[in-house]
């Protein structure tokens, strides 16, 4: 079986072209749907997909304005409610009737929304460094990053920049080039630009305090839950993680010392936890 994914293009209900990566697998198994963080793309899940392809279908989505999905003429198209609609369109277009959803950061929020809006479609939910309360300091750090286009001349420059500004992620020195390659792409001017539309920043709500989404979490159906947290995360606090675990004591929890937002998911404790989480679905 080829390790290379298939690129799928489909249309949202308003006609905007969206894109996903697909690794084929046993059609009898519950498929794994992977949703990246804001300003990230389907490429982030390559390692997870290569681990599980064949045993189950794996699909990773590029949001509007990200990766191979089209850029919108109007940046308000990038609002959260539009992303939720795009997720619903993706489920229909890609024939994903019931999924195990793995969501990093913003992707986990969309997973919680799916559990409320279409609970029958959610077979299991894994949330990577995200939850029903988003800390304002972490959100400001995200804002500062996603609206910026440094237009690097070389991948080495991009790698050095990311190594300097990103939180601790446990990435070895030699691994930063790969991070840069999944973050930036060569443009028509020959320079490296973000793999997302930096106008996404304009569509992000500005809250005076933390973003509170507890009704979404409390309304999740009784499905296998997994929470992954980097202990140095500025997005998901230790207190929020404790409250989540108290509300859903059956939820599996993985805590990664010294890791910030967001874990890469290829950390051995994450891989083992994801294996067990998916094994519960057969």
From TrEMBL:
Residues in AB hydrolase-1 domain copies: 32-265
InterPro entries annotated for this entry?
Answer: AB_hydrolase_1, AB_hydrolase_fold, AB_hydrolase_sf
Keyword Lipoprotein included in the entry's annotation: no
User: Which SUPFAM superfamilies does the UniProt entry name for this protein?
Assistant: alpha/beta-Hydrolases
Sorted alphabetically, the keyword list is: Hydrolase
Protein name in the entry:
Alpha/beta hydrolase
- Pfam families membership: Abhydrolase_6
Q: Does the keyword Protease apply?
A: no
The organism is Belnapia arida
Which Gene Ontology MF annotations are present?
hydrolase activity
